[in-house]
Each structure stands twice: as structure tokens, then as C-alpha cells.
């Protein structure tokens, strides 16, 4: 009797290989967000714009003299914040259109690559911020930020293609962890160069400019790895629209916005993410101000804390990924949001100049930050209707970028009213409370069914 030998199913191995390649883009783009946007760009831009405004070489965020931007007179000390806000608002309008285009093209890998390489080109132009020449840097940081967001729309959309529902928490967690590690490694190198510029025979500003250039090169170079190892897939389950590419993209966007009412759980999660992510971004952005102005720590403590958070977040993302496999991403996000509420309350009562407690709070921030950010990305994928990953992830990024100024506004208003950063930091609990409110109203299994996806064993 002849028997045909069973053929092994190699699809899990092939998926894992693509997932590892996909993780490399987290490693690549995190350098730009960490070295450039978070740490080095703002102070350099304030110094250079301050010279142009007449504040001198010692310009800081208190420089009230202005520079002219498209006829508007903006304080040099506030210029980086205005540039970031403009890029954020522009992204909120542009990303949904990019998402629709990504879904239609069937070339997500190449969309990610070209947006990334274009963004890294503009990021490299930050090297030319020097003397009192700030204008090119202003244009470059806006373009690089918007293009980075466009690349992430395509990148996130590929998560749906390279992983099954039960794999996504672990894949996303590894990606975020890899990103924290990559961003942290380059940041250590660059801070070493900036702080030790005299020993290297470099002017401090030149060292900062070289660090900004290195982040752009890192971003562009490591993007090559996923481009070589990932594969494009044909677009699927896309409702056809007539006309050219731009017309079809707008048509699909409008259709998706109208159709969103058919997915109430997807909308509920987007509302939850809008609020708790705004709280997260504000805590991250305000931590240095709080540590410096309220707790009276010097630059060395703040730099050490930034690096500590970067590397502990690597472990936090992996830890939450493991917990999610056993207990589900939904419980982890609920628990993580509660953890953020505890953190801002503890921060309010943190005594000044107590380094140990400040570092312990930094560890707590890193753990929940890594976990909530990683799992939000993968959990949301379960609520996306098939064939709409690019556009729905664009809405996800638009919720993040288009509203991320609410928290900073509340933080600033509370400081202005009270004259203290303590009530300002604890006021952010309202964003986590609202996020938790919508999370608790979420029925994950219903949302997954409505989107037509397979429900994992643990949600």
C-alpha cells in the first residue's frame, strides 16, 4: 500500500523570519525619535534661533525675543514646540490619505522604504543648523516628522500581513523592545560624543550636529534590512473606487469614516487610546521639566534617567508581551493604564533631590510605557476590518498625533494657575481615567467578530 508522506507546514517559520525582519524597522526609526526629536534637536534649535533673534549664545527656553516664520513673530525659546505642533497637525490630516494609498497599492514594503528614506534625507539636513541659520532646520524637522509618520502607517499595516491574530502581541512587543534598544544604543554613543566633545577635539554644537546626522544615517541604513527581507503582498478585500490614485484614496478614506459606525468597538478603542496615549506622551515630554524645575536635579541625573528609561522599556515591552500571551492584551492595557494613574500620583509627592526615588519612578514609567505602547499597536490590529490595515492604522496614528497637545496644554495651564509643577503632573490623571473609562466599556471579543477577524485564545 502506497502512502504519501505528509509535507511539513513551513508557514510559521516563514512568518517568523519576516517578523524578525519587520522588527528591524523599529530599531531603525527609533534613532530619529530618540536622538533627534526627544533629546538634541530642541536645545540646538533654541540656541541657533536665539542668536538670530538677538538672545546670544546662552539662549534657552526663556528667550522671549522673536524670529519671523511666514510673517508670524514666534519666540525663539518656543520655536521647537511650534514646529512639532505644526508637524503633528499636518500628520493628522495627511496620514489617513497615505493609509488609503498604502492599502490600494499592494506595495506596503516599498511605501515604508521610500517614506523612510525621504524622511532620513530631511533628518540629515538638521546637520546644517548652525550659526544663526535655523530656517532650513525648521523645514527639515517638519518634513522628517511627517514622513516618519507616513512610513509607520505602512509599517504597522504590514503587522496584519506577517502575523496571525494570536502572534501579534509578541511580534509587536519584540518590535517595540528592539526599538527601545536601538534608540538607546545610539543615544549612549551620541551623548558620549556630546558630553566628551572636548576630548574628541570637537566644538559642542558640531558634536550635536554630528549626532543628528548619525540618527538620519542610522534610520536610512537599517531600513535596508526589512526592505530586503520582507515581501509585498497584493491588496485584498479593498472596495474599489473609480478615478486616479489620489481620488481613489480620498474615496476609500471617506468610505471608511462612514463605515466606522459599523464597528463601535473599534471606535471605542480609538477613543481610549486617544486619551491614555495623550497622558503617556505628556508624561514623557514633561518628565525632564519636572525633574529639573520642580525636583532640582542637574543634567547628569536627567540624562542618566533618560537612558535608564530607554533600556528598562526594552524589558518592559518584552515582559508585557509575555504576560499578554497568558492573560491577554486587554487585561494588560487596563492594568497598565491603572499603573500610569498610580505613577502620576506618586510623582506629585516625590521629594526634591531624592535621586533614588526619582530613578525608581523612572523604572516604573519605563515598564508600563514599553508594555502599553507595544500592546496598543497589536491589540488594535484585531479590530481592523480586512483590507483596511493601512487606513485604520493611519486613523490610529492620527489619534495619537492630532490630539497629543491636549495633555501639554493642561500641564501648562495648571502650572500657570498654581505656580507649581506638582498639581500640573497629577492633573494628567484625567487622561488615564478617561482612557480607562473607554477601555472598560470595550467588549474585545465583540469587536474582533465585527471586524471579521479570528479571536485569539486569550484576549
Textual characterization of the structure:
With 459 residues, the protein is an all-alpha fold. It has two domains: 220 residues, Growth Hormone, Chain: A, CATH 1.20.1250.20; 203 residues, MFS general substrate transporter like domains (Growth Hormone, Chain: A), CATH 1.20.1250. The chain is 75% helix and 2% strand. It has a two-stranded antiparallel ribbon. Helix 3 runs antiparallel to helix 6.
Sequence stretches where pLDDT stays below 50 over 5 or more residues: none
The CATH fourth-level homologous superfamily of the largest domain: MFS general substrate transporter like domains
Radius of gyration: 22 Å
Number of E-type strands: 2
Strand content bin: under 5%
Mean pLDDT: 87
Just name the CATH architecture of the largest domain: Up-down Bundle
